[in-house]
Amino acid sequence: MRTRYGILACLLALAGGAFAASRAPVPAPTSRVRVEVRAPLVVPQGEPELEVAPPPRSAPPTEDTGPLRAAGVGLEDGLIITGESTQRVLLFTFDDGPERRTTPALLDALDRHDVKAVFFVTVERLSGPGNRIQEQRELLREIVARGHVIGNHTVTHQQLPLMTTEAITAELDHADAVLTELVGFRPRLFRPPGGSRSPRVDRVLAARGYTQMLWSHGTGDFQVRSADDVQHIFRRVLERREREEGVRGGVVLMHDPHSWSVEAFPRIMDEIERTNCELLTRGEELYDVIDDPALFFAARDGAEPGTVAPPLTLPPDVHARRQATRRDEARERCAAIVASR
Ligand SMILES: [Zn+2]
Fold first, then answer.
1. Residue 148: exposure state from Cβ atoms within 10 A (0-12, 13-18, ≥19)
2. Distance between Cα 191 and ligand 1 center (Å)
3. Among 27-31, 47-51, 201-205, which stretch is predicted with the lowest mean pLDDT?
4. Cα 39 to ligand 1 centre (Å)
């Protein structure tokens, strides 16, 4: 057991944010963080026209805007998102899929918990012949149909700083073509494999209009083999980042091709709900699982490609409104938990 916890301790050290290892000063939160749902829907040249005009921004998503939301249209050319939040806001992201053996169960669990996530897909799982690829292409359409967002996680999942610019460009071309064929639009969000970046890679990605989204809360799920360990690391990272760095929430990284990660997700959600019951009784800020990566978005506005976005801080009125809703939900849920005892 000692060895196991020794390994867990190492993973905890590693499982913080993608940005934690090479931290640069992060500017203080500013009002540049866009909190309205997203930018006006602009159909870029060369991509299919919408058959029906998009609804007003206040309208709920419809089938017509699904592909636009899924591709993150409106989130292009943003500052690099480190994923950190000064509030207890969580956005779930799943990398390296889709995988036909595990992703379907995750989609059902996300639905059961009414959570929308971002899937950073590895495009070699979606291109080429064979039943497996075909099933995973269908699965990507299912991810979109269920209201999630997709992002580009390259084709072959190599460390980009080790690749030539020509090779990176070829991967981006290939990924754009496959994902546009499947979704109708190319994704605007990009996650570099391993979080590996360089000034050259940042420039190449910015020139294509990609917005890089890193993560603030790793779960170590690529190195452990049990849902227990994933859940344990998630909780410890969440507590440690708040206690030691004041990072109270942010972007959570998991990997949907791992069965233990898929198994851990509903447990993590149950734990968040139980924790919120305790926080409610103490009058503290509750955890708020958000559906929209646009909350983390800040336009680059000509800044250098390697410039990072400030940590997410929702404006006070938005935060207060969301917290009031979370408290109402928790009151109902926590009462039901107590009643069932
Ligand atoms: Zn990956």
1. buried
2. 8
3. 27-31
4. 28
Question: With bands split at pLDDT 50, 70 and 90, how would you rate the model's confidence at 1?
Answer: very low
Domains and CATH numbers, the chain: 63-339 (3.20.20.370)
Question: Using the 8-state DSSP alphabet, how is residue 125 labeled?
Answer: G
pLDDT tens for residues 155-194? 999 999 999 999 999 999 999 999 999 999 999 999 999 9
How does the average pLDDT of the chain come out, rounded?
87
100 vs 267: CA distance, rounded Å = 21
Q: Is the dihedral of CA 299, 301, 306, 311 positive or negative?
A: negative
Length of the chain: 341
Round to whole Å and give the CA distance between 330 and 162: 47
Cα of 60 vs centre of ligand 1, distance in Å, is 32
Q: What is the pLDDT of residues 207-256, one digit of tens each?
A: 999 999 999 999 999 999 999 999 999 999 999 999 999 999 999 999 99
Q: How far is the CA of 114 from the centre of ligand 1 (A)?
A: 25
Cα(96) to centroid(ligand 1), Å: 5
pLDDT at position 122 over 50: yes
Q: Rounded to an integer, what distance in angstroms lies between the CA atom of residue 97 and that of residue 197?
A: 21
Distance 194 CA to ligand 1 centre (A): 6
Rounded to the nearest whole angstrom, what is the distance from the C-alpha of residue 247 to the centroid of ligand 1? 23
Consecutive H or E run containing 142? helix 131-145
**Long-range contacts, 156-164 (Cβ 8 Å, 24+):** 156/122, 156/124, 157/96, 157/122, 157/124, 157/193, 158/193, 159/193, 159/194, 159/196, 160/192, 160/193, 160/196, 160/197, 160/198, 160/201, 161/196, 161/197, 161/198, 161/200, 161/201, 162/196
